[in-house]
Write a structure and sequence with these properties.
Elements (H helix, E strand, L loop, with lengths): L26 H25 L3 E8 L5 H8 L8 E5 L14 H4 L8 E5 L8 H4 L19 H20 L2 E9 L2 H13 L9 H7 L2 H15 L6 E5 L3 H16 L12 H5 L1 H9 L1
Parallel strand pairs: 1-3, 1-4, 2-3, 4-5
Amino acid sequence: MKLKNFKVPDNLNLQDVPTTYDIDLDPLMVKKELKSYRKKLAELQDMMYADDRYSVLICFQGMDTAGKDSMIREVFKGFNARGVVVESFKTPSKKELQHDFMWRHYVKLPEKGKFTVFNRTHYENVLVTRVHPNYLLNERNPHIDVGHLTDEFWNHRMKQMVQFEQFWADNGVIVLKFYLHISKDEQKNRLLKRIEKPKHQWKFSPGDLEERALWEKYRFSYEELLKNTSHKQGKWFIIPSDDKDVSRLIVSKIIYQTLKKYKDISYPQPDPEILERISKYKKELNK
């Protein structure tokens, strides 16, 4: 499994990108591998918390039912609770709308030594709003004319997001972005499951069907997003997600392989004076 298999290709067309991936492991081995990588990630998180210089921002985007919630639950369940925070971005609140469109995301960035997971991200501002331009009216931005939006407007907004991410990276934030790629047929199956199983019915909304009818518009918006906002300090990875267990393993391995490249992350050493007196401290405790 190589990282390059999941990077955004040149001349991206999501219809040509597979939503399944042959990992050459039986389902039980996939779960076992995932468990192993959870442990490795938890150990890395503990070291990063002690090192207290870098932080990690994990971004998840995807069509409805792509599996963002369960992805977060299964990948990060081994983490120490003090080292990871999950932020979910839905309809902006009244207070959030009193600021620029990036403000509510900026204030949720991870503290040094910690992971923050964005369940939906700042990119909703060029996804949902591109499909539903009237949502931009809520921003009350005097420079936006909803009736005359052009590709230049959306490209400029995406460029601003990239600039923000580059600034974050320059200040020690490691940014990883994952698009969970599912097929329209798989989305249908997952929506049917929500309807048919009583314990999942609370997740279903008639609005899910209205958004599903806009599949092609969302696909176009995602293609533009992935092509224009994947950069050296904030790469997008397209994760085949029709099989949830496989997608979780792929994400875990990408996060682990990326963080292992940072050779300067380590447990801090005690002061030399403390090291010199270690044997003395042991004797005192053993008394």
